[in-house]
Amino acid sequence: MEFNNAFFEQLGRSTGVRGVVDAAAERVAATARANAPVDTGQYRNSIRTTGKMQRRYVGLVVAGDDKAMVIESRTGNLARALRANARRR
């Protein structure tokens, strides 16, 4: 069996796939915001989604606050949000 790699690369960049990926990333971000530790609210408010294109479209959930790395290392908030949403499928 031989796969049509060009087809799968095109599919991975298609508008439909991008919409599904963006929706999943937004669900993860919403979970992360809901469970984020709140001191000033800057970390929670900095959680956002973005996408990038390589061979296929990839959705990312990131936190842009200056303290995000410290908060993530202590709480694992983004990782927990991803796991929680992976179980929901």
From TrEMBL:
Domain of life, per the record?
Bacteria
**What is the protein name stated in its UniProt record?**
HK97 gp10 family phage protein
Organism annotation: Agromyces larvae
